[in-house]
# Entry
Amino acid sequence: MSQNFDTALKPPFSEKWGWFVALGVLMIMGGGIAFGNVMAATVASVYTVGIVMLLGGILHMAHAFRVKKSESAFYWSFSGACYTVAGIFALLNPLLASATITLLMAVALIVAGAFRIWTAIKLRPLDGWRWIALGGLLTLVAGLVIAAGWPVNSLWILGLFLAIDLVMQGLALIAFGVLAKG
# Structure
């Protein structure tokens, strides 16, 4: 079954392999630009989040008017107002928003790392549990390092993560394109 699936997908991707490689190269270039000025990349990230939240809030409130006679109208209105306020906050003060997002990211990494370690301990009778524990430990340490450097690192940490993500996605697309060509 999977061989038929692979064979069915191969022609469209093998014909367009160059587009994947080109997109990968552009993403790596974007990552390089972000690495060159991680503070500007942080601000750009926060503006992007702010715009998305603002648009989401407006759409939630518009939806509230469409369902104004239902029980959920208050939920949609309140949710939309929260998104809108958060989006405006991010757009008006991106540095404070980046500090907030960075702190939330540190907490999320700490919790995720601790949970992975706990899960690994529960999986201890199975082979490979140490890899899950190691991954959890690295996630936990990353969260602790970010929290220890907060709020100063909030000026650059989001931009650094954006740069790393752009480069990694670019490399993945180049690898995919080259392998799809074959």
